[in-house]
Design brief:
Shape: globular
Mean pLDDT: 90
Low-confidence stretches: none
Strand order of the largest sheet: 3-2-1-6-4-7-5
Radius of gyration: 19 Å
Number of helices: 10
Distance between the termini: 61 Å
Strand content: 5-15%
Oligomer: single chain
Largest sheet: 7 strands, parallel
CATH topology of the largest domain: Alpha/beta knot
CATH architecture of the largest domain: 3-Layer(aba) Sandwich
CATH superfamily of the largest domain: SPOUT methyltransferase, trefoil knot domain
Length: 244
């Protein structure tokens, strides 16, 4: 499978055996880029190996990050897997539609990722705000309970089915979306300048306002050129006005 196959990012996973089962599910369909964000019990975890049932290679090569921002920095398209309504203005895709979009990114030489949250609580709103779209599996609404490995294997299976398919998705920006590293750099730049000018007046509302800014920017899926243009605009607005 291509080196640009999507990364599976487990955010704050709790049990080593669930990490192992997720690795097994990934390798069933040829995915090998496992990334762990702040695993609760540290890494490596002795409980992961037996549950991986032979997918030890993935566990040995798994990359560990402290934050979601670091884990997605090299990705152009990120899907946050969740079944809960988040009250965010984000597009929602099925695993099949997400796989088609990821395949298109690969053809453009760009990397994508799926975010999976902790087993007990799922992704936090701050995690979801960093994603481009929400991925929801169309399960029985009266029993929408999937464990971590089940969710991973559904995403991996649907991606595997796109190998010979012609993608239906047509991107808004032929030149490609900006990397998350570039996008988050622009967001941080904007937040710094807004803070200097007193935009975040209430500390109680700061986190909510920052989340809204990140959600608005990531949902727009700007291109690299647009991000650079916005950086220039922010710099220009931050300069003192010229005397006339």
């Amino acid at each position: 499978m291509t080196d640009l196959a999507p990364a599976i990012i487990l955010v704050r996973p709790q049990l080593g055996e669930n990490i192992g089962k997720a690795a097994r599910a990934m390798l069933n369909f040829g995915l090998t880029d496992m990334r762990l964000v702040s695993p609760r019990d540290g890494w490596p975890n002795p409980d992961a190996g037996p549950a991986a049932s032979g997918a030890d290679m993935l566990l040995d090569q798994a990359k560990v990050f402290e934050t979601v921002e670091e884990a997605i920095a090299d990705c152009r398209l990120v899907f946050a897997t969740t079944v809960r309504e988040r009250g965010m203005a984000k597009s929602v895709a099925t695993p099949r539609e997400a796989a088609a979009q990821i395949r298109h990114k690969i053809q453009n030489g760009e990397r994508s990722a799926y975010l999976f949250g902790p087993e007990r609580s799922g992704l936090a709103n701050d995690d979801v705000a960093l994603a481009d779209q929400i991925l929801t599996v169309p399960v029985n609404p009266e029993f929408a309970s999937l464990n971590l490995a089940q969710a991973v294997i559904i995403a991996a299976y649907e991606f595997s089915q796109t190998i010979d398919a012609t993608p239906a998705y047509q991107p808004a920006f032929p030149e490609g979306q900006a990397s998350k590293d570039s996008l988050l750099g622009m967001i941080n730049h904007l937040e710094v300048e807004l803070d200097k000018r007193g935009y975040f007046k209430s500390e109680d509302r700061r986190a909510h306002q920052q989340r809204m800014i990140r959600n608005m920017v990531t949902s727009a899926s700007p291109s690299e050129q647009e991000v650079q243009s916005w950086r220039g605009i922010i710099k220009s607005l931050a300069r003192p006005p010229k005397e006339t």
